[in-house]
Amino acid sequence: MLHHWREAVPNDRLAHLIRDVARAQMRALQERLSARGVSFGHWTFLRILWLRDGVTQRELSELAGVMEPTTFAAVKAMETMGLVERRQLAGNRKNMHVFLTRQGRSLEKKLVPLAEEVNRISVGRSSATEVGRARKFLLTMLENLAADASRADPPPKSTP
Question: In which band, very low, low, confident or very high, does the pLDDT at 110 lie, cut at 50, 70 and 90?
Fold first, then answer.
């Protein structure tokens, strides 16, 4: 991969470089997670639940950016593993909420350091200033793309 970027196509589109960096980071994290019996797909949901335990399955899908059937399958698997439990709240039988179990909560202390390690490896000896600039630039890119998407979205239909 390095040969590709340094020699074969050093001026290829930034989107391709970002994709390759993301894939390399995900691969590095996936190796570390799988050694502890957690899939990368479950990592995404666990991260959300560590911050917002008790969200509905639909909210979990939206926050993870995946389709509801994908979330349902992942939650069911994590439930079988003893990491989460699904339950309805009193007074609201419509929505199914997802809660971490004690085991699921305890994984945070074991797994977050793995992601932090991958981040440390990724930035290597880059200075805090360089990392800050890169972060600011990537956030600007996200804002630009979000603005473009909002212009492309059709206006909501008015109801009579």
Answer: very high
Place of tokens 């932090």: 116
Rg of the chain over CA atoms, in angstroms? 20
Q: Which two tokens stand for residue 53?
A: 């335990």
How far apart, in Å, are the Cα atoms of 118 and each of 23, 26, 49, 123, 133? 12, 9, 21, 9, 19
Give the global pTM: 0.79
Residues 29 and 40: beta-carbon distance below 8 Å: yes
Residues 30-36: what's their mean pLDDT?
96
Go through the chain and tell me how many residues it has.
160
Return d(Cα 116, Cα 138) in angstroms, integer: 19
| Domains of the chain, CATH where assigned | 2-120 (1.10.10.10)
